[in-house]
User: Fold this.
Amino acid sequence: MSVPASGLPAPLFGDADFERIDAQLAGSDRLLAEAYPGDAGTRQPVHTVYVPADRFTPSIAADWGQQALAAAAEAGGIRRLAELVGLSPELAAEVAPRVEAKLRAEAIEDLRIDFEDGYLAPARSDDPEGTEDAEALHAADQVTAAIAAGTATPFVGIRFKCFEEATRRRGLRTLELFLARLVQNGGLPEGLVLTLPKVSTVEQVEAMVYAVGRLEAALGLHPGRLGFEVQVETPQLIIGADGSHPVAQLPHRAEGRITALHYGTYDYSASLQIAAAYQSMEHPAADFAKEVMQLAVAGTGIRLSDGSTNVLPVGDAPQREEAWKLHARLVRRSLERGYYQGWDLHAHQLPTRYIATYAFYREGLAKATERLRNYVQQTVGAVLDEPATARALAAFVLRGVQCGAVGADEVRALTGLSEADLTRLAHPRLQAVPN
Assistant:
């Protein structure tokens, strides 16, 4: 190879080489662009609350917030409860007023009206099919009423019955009635969420894709308006009959319809014949399933939610305190493992949901913002961060802002970055977000 006077060798690769490599990698380029778009950067709720369909009312979020505050007051207040579950006095003092404000203003972020395991109304009726029909319509009317009253949660929807043979027609009927009544009442809520439970096969998800497409066409909805969550509650979705991981196929077989995967603690544990006393979000079997889920959706934009604990903060003071400690620890454990959402089953779990969540973000705020500031200003600090780490730091701070743990004004003061700046830094593949 000759070396010109400039000292640089003559180019080896020509247009024909580049064209050949481009053609060879066209499929890879397309796959990465279409199947792995990354997270959307929009708000993800920190939890989902499940309420039986016959118990849902437009005031339920405020009602649960008051119950949560009353339970915390009996324990000595939010600050004392925060110390009880392990926060330092200084951090407890920092977190407590924010948690109290959250419980007064927005106690529930994501509400699921349950027509599946938590729904028992048909068992009380001589006409269970007619009862569920009526309550599906009533649930939609209640959602509409909550929106009109300004009491609706940011995210709301239903969990209908699964697509196993015995229940799929009932589930589809409930879904159809609920959506049709919402449309009749004026339209779907912006934060609508649909939950498909007990998924065992890829084909069940493909059937759901078909079903929501038919509903969109019939109800005059824009194509692609209806997405849905998949509940991972069976081992067959983690390891299939052929030894593959069906859950990893879901993002690529659902036409972009899947919004999240939710781990179902107790159905999954029971499927593995784990004794009831040892069924837990932190059982090794649960961790394995959730790690597979995490790998399956990495980069796809599909979000993850951990499950629930059925150990509730009720009963006498010692029972409540032990349940609160457990719940707070499990919430923190999920956050540390990259699961930023979980399930809550009782109003008394709300204080520790927000205490643990807010503590997680506030504890990490100072170091994260210092490293972000150094990265943006190209200042050499104690840690030299790469772009990927800067994205993770920005995403961490952004999540804290979105849930209320951190103020956008705080972040701007510490880093000079607005919430829109954070979004662009955390999710650079997205179209620029205006300030």
About this structure: The chain has a mean pLDDT of 94. The domain at 47-363 is CATH 3.20.20.60 (TIM Barrel).
